[in-house]
Amino acid sequence: MNYGFNEENVLEQKASKILIADDDALVRTTVAKVLEMFGHEVVTVPDGIDLVKIVDDSYDVIILDINMPGLDGFETIKVLNERNYEIPVLFLTGAGSMDYAVQAINLGAYDFLTKPIEDLDIFNVKIARALEKRQYVLKDRVYKLSLEDDIRVKAQQLEEQNKLLRVYSHSLENATLQLMTSLQNAMEEKDFYTAGHTNRVTEYAVMLGLSIGIPEEDLAVLRRAAQFHDIGKLVIDLACIQKPGKLTDEEWKLIRKHPAVGANIITPLGFMEREQAIIRHHHEREDGRGYPDGLTSKDLDQLTRILIVVDSYDAMTSKRNYRRNMSVEEASAELRRCAGTQFDPPTVEVFVEAIKDFHLPDGLAPHID
Asked: What's the start-to-end Cα distance of the chain, in Å?
């Protein structure tokens, strides 16, 4: 044999863990000594069965004989492939068995070694290349793990930032709603007869929504829509709203603008898109004779139908400077009389039953004589 071996070659090699499986004890011993001479740690087994029992991710290279009892080299590499260790496998082949080598490479073998070993330089180069392949695999794993960790850290940072943005956005929404509520309450308090209208309508709307059994998310939308259904009156001359007696045609046209004006005020608030539509349509009718768009029953959603009913009910049961208020019974009868033309019949029926046992919070009762 031409070992082609010198001390410099040994020192250049980094100690690695190599597993050998061969049923020939002499071959195992010879290959192991050569590898140990190059500074590698070597473990040997007599067949594929013993190899698959002990192999794990700590090995850097596997050297397999092809013809072994129990579990031959081809069957062994199939097991290794299933376990996905990604350890380079070099097959030991005898003279005249190159067709085996080709088959082995097709199964995923990294390379093959001929036996007996006659050229240690070539042998060493093949082992070194296999080790380089293993190092590449391990570095790639580390890189991927590091990348995954980095992505997790960045995702966590992004989530924290999103939480802060949500908190800020929620605070901004609340501040906006509080300001709008204050402005609307201030407007209502200027008129003795309409004071508390918005809060009562909101209480009625929530009560009716709960009685119907609408989802929690819809209930929140309904509550906000009720709170700001008359926000458009902020830009209407209060003289029209507070005027005793019948309004002129011009004054009536002005009053009829408040749903559309209110919807326009809400438009910049992206978080109130659904509320905007409800506010715009809270004076529509089932028969299409409402305003501002003349919608009919098929165009009105459940939340809008609820607001139409409760807004009208509060107007009926509240004292005005030009008329007396209706009783609960009278207003319920009026709602039923107008069901199918002005109001949604099922919504009316639920409301008139629920209102019998409902009591407004203290301080919200409408003004009556």
From this structure: 122
β-bridge mates for residue 320, sequence order: 323
Closest CA to 228 of 190, 294, 182: 182
**What is the tens place of the pLDDT at every residue in 57-75?**
999 999 999 889 889 999 9
Residues 189 and 191: their CA atoms lie apart, in Å, by 5
Distances (CA, A) of 235 to 238, 249, 265, 269, 312: 9, 18, 10, 18, 22
Instruction: Take residue 10 and report the two structure tokens written for it.
Output: 């040994």
Question: Hey, what CATH class is 191-357 in?
Answer: mainly alpha
As separate numbers, helices (DSSP H) first and strands (DSSP E) second, the chain gives 15, 5
Tell me how crowded residue 22 is: count the other CB atoms within 10 A of its CB.
26
For CATH 1.10.3210.10, list the domain ranges present in the chain. Answer: 191-357
- 305-325 tens-digit pLDDT: 999 999 999 999 987 666 678
For 7-142, CATH gives 3.40.50.2300
